[in-house]
Structure prediction request, 277 residues.
Amino acid sequence: MALNDTDLLSQAGSAENIMTFDDIEPILEARDLSVSYGTKMAISNVAIQIPKNSVVSLIGPSGCGKSTLLRCFNRMNDLISSATVRGSVNFAGQDIYAPAVDPTEIRFRIGMVFQRPNPFPKSIYENVAFGPKINGMTDDLDAVVENSLRRAAVWDEVKDRLGDSGLSVSGGQQQRICIARALAVNPEVVLMDEPASALDPISTQAIEQLIQELSSEVTIVIVTHNMQQATRISDYAAVMMAGEERVGRLIEYGTNDQVFGNPKDARTEAYVTGRIG
Prediction:
């Protein structure tokens, strides 16, 4: 008997199709990861491996816990007073939730770019130099700023405006300055929460090209609602859904070709083809 869309969504708590990578050492690995806000469970028992120097897209309908999961990877949920995180996230040989781990250090090594550009109300130069200064990296800041802006593909557009406010340039340029700010401390992973959703198509294309170029140097985990974007830029896709109880779970994870071309789960097929979501 064929399942209707309600049936598909109601299965979001059933058995998961989780892909592991036996031949690749993951740079990040979450195990039995659950997050609640007060008494409300947001995500439950997520297990996922993030291969090094890859682009992994987190996709799924609104409210399924994608951003919550993303924030777990550098302890940003710590900043939400009602949040409780259970389980583990292993990075560089340690559980980042272990008591002795400094979350500030983790956030430099695992940077984050948010949905809307959020440059500091400082000059473009000071925006990019902020992290290195905080970390005591004061040698040759000019070179660090230039290199970071070049890596973020925005140097040629702002090189003559480094003293101008980071808020004075276009939205797309602001977002790339924020990416440069994250890159300035040489992170190993960059998390992106819908980084192009507030941008025009030309700026979106620039961000997508930048993501693909950066993935040879850093690992990128991106939340996106745009299926076309996910297929264009990702190496792997992780599908999340929440059933009637509104608890997010990872239902399928694999290479882009597998998830979009030959999904194992009927709910994944329904989502990527636009039947639900």
Notes: The chain has eleven helices and ten strands. The longest helix spans residues 201-214. Confidence is low (pLDDT under 50) at residues 1-10, 12-18. The chain has one domain: 5-10+27-272.
